[in-house]
Design brief:
Two copies of one chain form a homodimer. By secondary structure, chain A is an alpha/beta fold. The first copy, chain A, folds into two domains: 202 residues, Rossmann fold, CATH 3.40.50.1100; 91 residues, Rossmann fold. In chain A, 48% of the residues lie in helices and 15% in strands. In chain A, the strands form two sheets. In chain A, strands 1-2-10-7-8-9 form a six-stranded mixed sheet, with helices on both faces. In chain A, helix 3 runs parallel beside helix 5. Chain A starts with 9 loop residues before the first helix and ends with a helix. At the A-B interface, helix 12 and helix 15 of A face helix 12 and helix 15 of B.
Chain lengths: 322, 322
């Protein structure tokens, strides 16, 4: 099977769910009466920070790795990723027993790079520009024959990410709204696809950092913003939305709301404190969106995709460096 | 019912379990294949950081509050606690609809004091000495008629704390060892009691900070050390072991091992990173004991009581104060 040219469908999400079932965790759905009271709505948190490799990314990566036919798989896979997708692809490749190459930009978060290496991937460093990392990827591809598994535009990846929302919709009846963070758009477009297919009354909402609001702006303009300089604490959401992801979000009429970093950090702190769950800023933004946009969420039953928990503990000097 | 004079028995643990069942969470048991591999044994973590009010303390406090007869209960309860027990008692009292007074030493951890206040208790401040806080407690008792619920010597409290181990033993078959942190000895003596009663082949081990190793020293000497100056990051374990707690630990031949703070912080970091669970230092010490004492734990099936998750987030400036 070569990478499909068409955008994924509901059928592809079902196929992904079956394909990753032996490897991925069916993560729990968490509740907090305290946070419900603060938010004024009923929140159901899909705990993807408890997914293997610490983020939803394992779903898409695993789907892509196991969708390859044996001949293609034998040459391995390659990707560029500063973080969770790299680790997820490395783990998926190890589970299939194939090689994995990850192109990491200089200056990437140390804890995330260490995780990629720990799962046995071969690391390649590039300058931190899109052009440089794509060039390095192409170089590795031509040298090894590895298949590129793009972090968010690959249709298998999008379908895989949609399985988190599908599981949540299967677990919790009557969700009115489903909130997911927006970075490259793999998770948000997969979530929107799952909602449209499996719970048409449920509306998907994207949460995007104010300092990286290219998707918000692209939807407003009706065309994809091609350049921007992100400035946000959400290290997983600094990417420009992908073309197929933008097309899906637009076609499915997904509303994207923006969230300031201060609100995201406050929401993260609240969730750590109340739920004792270590979620990363790029996850907490979805809760922050709920707390900051009562006009959308008040009184509703809301699913929140907590995308990951790969917090950089080196950035927490208080307890760990004494 | 007045506070029993005798130390608690296995029957008291069973009674406590029935009494608190409508209010307490039956917390999950967590696994980590990564940590098992590092530790060289099979670990089953009892997740009391997910207990109500964020610690096992709710079990004992709830048992004590609901064991009181109506007449006694009407006058309320009082305790001295710098932290988790105060919050737990406040919540239990609120659930029964009675008053709760908490004597808090000056300089107590801000986040824990805030939690006590949030559960509706009346706060009383005292100097941070045993004499001062006991005097203030006596003052509140005589003014209000409230019943003192001591954080760890109260037999209902000990029996209540033992329900965590009982649940773990009911959930996981064939545990060889059960590790619990040692502070005042409420949890460790309750755990030892549960192990002796419900799984006689399972040995209870206590984990105590090197900088607050009065129980270790008391067991070595065969008599209770009466004075010491604690110096440890484990803010929940700075107390001297209680008399009835020491008597139980001695009678049940519990082995106590000591752990340096560096090892505790490293274990906490490991657990945060791998399991995305926010456990406090006073909990992480139990995992640190396992990682540091392979001669005891290697190859065994081990239960670990993760006692609580009330981390002081103000002590983590990196992400929260930018």
């Amino acid at each position: 099977m070569t990478i499909p040219a068409d955008p994924p469908s509901a059928q592809d999400i079902l196929a992904a769910a079956a394909r990753i079932a032996p490897y991925a965790h069916a993560t729990p759905v968490l509740r907090s009466r305290g946070i419900d009271a603060l938010a004024g709505c009923e929140l159901h948190f899909k705990a993807e920070h408890l997914q293997r490799a610490g983020a939803f990314k394992f779903r898409g990566a695993c789907n892509a790795v196991f969708a390859l036919d044996d001949a293609r798989a034998a040459a391995g896979v390659v990707t560029h990723s500063s973080g969770n997708h790299g680790a997820a692809l490395a783990l998926a490749a190890r589970l299939r027993g194939i090689a994995c190459h990850v192109v990491v930009p200089e200056g990437a978060l140390r804890s995330k790079v260490a995780a990629i290496a720990a799962y046995g991937a071969t690391l390649h460093t590039s300058a931190p520009t899109t052009a440089a990392r794509e060039a390095k990827c192409a170089e590795v591809q031509s040298a090894t024959g590895a298949t590129l598994v793009h972090p968010y535009t690959n249709p298998w990846v999008i379908a895989g990410q949609g399985t988190a929302a599908m599981e949540l919709l299967n677990t919790v009846d009557g969700l009115d709204l489903l909130v997911a963070p927006v970075g490259g758009g793999g998770l948000s477009s997969g979530t929107a696809l799952a909602a449209a297919a499996f719970a048409p009354q449920c509306r998907a909402i994207g949460a995007e950092p104010s300092g990286a609001a290219d998707t918000f702006e692209s939807l407003r303009r009706g065309e994809r913003v091609a350049q921007f300089t992100p400035d946000t604490v959400c290290d997983g959401l600094r990417t420009l939305v992908g073309e197929p992801n933008f097309a899906l979000l637009r076609r499915l009429r997904v509303q994207v709301v923006t969230v300031d970093d201060d609100a995201t950090v406050a929401a993260m702190r609240l969730f750590w404190q109340r739920c004792k769950q270590l979620i990363e800023p790029s996850s907490a933004i979805a809760l922050a969106a709920v707390l900051g946009h009562r006009e959308i969420f008040a009184g509703r039953r809301v699913g929140v995709i907590l995308s990951g928990g790969n917090v950089d503990l080196d950035a927490l000097p208080g307890l760990f460096a004494r």
